[in-house]
């Protein structure tokens, strides 16, 4: 993926669990990443978690770059096998997604919206993707607003082992409509 936006160029590369662990550790333990639920993680915990993801057949992680510098984390997963097993009836073409914008001392207005848009572009670049599924914490109002801005519709609250989540979906058509693209 490479997307040039009003805030610059965003790209993604596969995450390397060993090479990227220190960087990721600084992101996921930052107070801004409270909903990532890794606040007390040690460096080895982060390495282990991303080694597990790298080895998983149905879960992938990527480092997002802004103008070539690491700026966000993106995960995609198959909800038939990861995160949502038994919590909803998956449809063909469903893809689960997580994203985390890195903490910064110099925030850029519109950056997080540009990131979620680039993530959605990347997911929908695969013609097999028909619908993106997310399950953020019910209390994470900021991400609910971002999700809605790119076309997600909340379906219902669900209980996951680690949190109460808002199960939400975004079809390709909903995403394109939210972007103002004629279908």
Overview of the structural elements:
By secondary structure, this protein is α+β, with helices and mostly antiparallel strands. The protein contains five helices and eight strands, in the order ββααβββαβαββα. It has helices at 17-28, 43-55, 111-124, 141-149, 172-179, and strands spanning 2-5, 8-14, 59-66, 69-77, 94-101, 131-134, 153-159, 164-171. A hairpin with a 4-residue loop joins strand 7 and strand 8 (164-171). The longest helix has 14 residues, at 111-124. The protein starts with a strand and ends with a helix.
Shape: globular
Strand elements, count: 8
- Taking Cα atoms only, what radius of gyration do you get, to the nearest Å? 16 Å
| Low-confidence residue ranges | none
Distance between the termini: 22 Å
Order of helices and strands: EEHHEEEHEHEEH
The biggest beta sheet reads: 8 strands, mixed
Strand order of the main beta sheet, please?
1-2-3-4-5-6-8-7
Assign the structural class, choosing from mainly alpha, mainly beta, alpha/beta, alpha+beta, or little secondary structure. Answer: alpha+beta
Strand content: 25-35%
Tell me the helix content.
Answer: 25-40%
What's the pLDDT, averaged over the residues?
92
Summed up, the helix count is 5
Entry summary:
The protein is an alpha+beta fold. Helix content is 31%, strand content 30%.
Please outline the helices and strands:
Elements: E1 2-5, E2 8-14, H1 17-28, H2 43-55, E3 59-66, E4 69-77, E5 94-101, H3 111-124, E6 131-134, H4 141-149, E7 153-159, E8 164-171, H5 172-179
Helix pairs in contact: 1-2
């Amino acid at each position: 993926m490479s997307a040039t936006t009003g805030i610059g160029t965003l790209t993604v590369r596969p995450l390397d669990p060993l090479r990227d662990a220190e960087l990721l550790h600084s992101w996921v333990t930052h107070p801004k990443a409270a909903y990532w639920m890794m606040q007390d993680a040690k460096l080895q915990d982060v390495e282990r978690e991303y080694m597990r993801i790298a080895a998983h057949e149905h879960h992938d992680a990527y480092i997002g770059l802004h103008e070539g510098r690491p700026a966000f984390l993106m995960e995609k997963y198959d909800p038939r096998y990861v995160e949502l097993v038994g919590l909803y009836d998956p449809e063909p073409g469903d893809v689960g997604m997580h994203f985390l914008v890195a903490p910064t001392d110099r925030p850029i207005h519109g950056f997080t919206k540009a990131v979620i848009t680039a993530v959605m572009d990347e997911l929908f670049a695969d013609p097999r993707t028909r619908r993106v599924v997310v399950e953020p914490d019910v209390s994470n109002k900021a991400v609910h607003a971002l999700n809605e801005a790119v076309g997600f519709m909340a379906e219902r609250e669900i209980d996951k082992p680690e949190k109460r989540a808002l199960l939400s979906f975004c079809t390709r058509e909903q995403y394109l409509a939210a972007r103002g693209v004629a279908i």
